Amino acid sequence: MAAMVPGLKRYLIQSGVYALGLVLLHFVLLWGFPEWYEFSFGLSLIVFLFIFFALFHYILLRLRDSHPAFFVRFFMGLTAVKMLVLLLILVIYISFNRSNIIPFIVIFSLGYIGFSGLEVFHAFKALKSDS
């Protein structure tokens, strides 16, 4: 079995804990405010965001040993691609499902901000430890 990319395990654990916090928030809102929060597949969205960001972070860590200028350009390009893909998903969902806009945006935004923050923190930490 191949060795795991350095730093990936710590990222997966911390982002997994964050994802579990989002799942807990989702169920608290689902059961606590059923008249306002009717978002039936919030759990699927959280799992999707966790896997999506983990995949992109894995790709980022695999290229960490490349030339620093290339890595910075790749990181910025990868971030732009992520934002565009997630914006497309957001626009498509909102276009076709107007009844759950606010719950979707709440979970989507918290997931995007949290997972992005963790990714930037871990990428910076990995780059700092390499130099």
List keywords for this structure.
131 residues; elongated; single chain; mainly alpha; 0% strand
Tell me the helix content: over 70%
Biggest β-sheet: count, sense, barrel?
none
- Per DSSP E runs of 2 or more residues, the count of β-strands stands at 0
Overall pLDDT metric = 86
The Rg value, from CA coordinates, equals 17 Å
Note the beta-strand portion.
under 5%
Distance between the termini: 28 Å
What features would you describe in this structure?
- The chain is mainly alpha-helical and 131 residues long.
- The chain is elongated and about 50 Å long.
Sequence-ordered SSE layout with sheet pairings:
Blueprint: H1 8-32, H2 42-62, H3 68-96, H4 101-130
Helix pairs in contact: 1-2, 1-4, 2-4
Offer a quick outline of the entry:
With 131 residues, the chain is mainly alpha-helical. Helix content is 80%, strand content 0%.
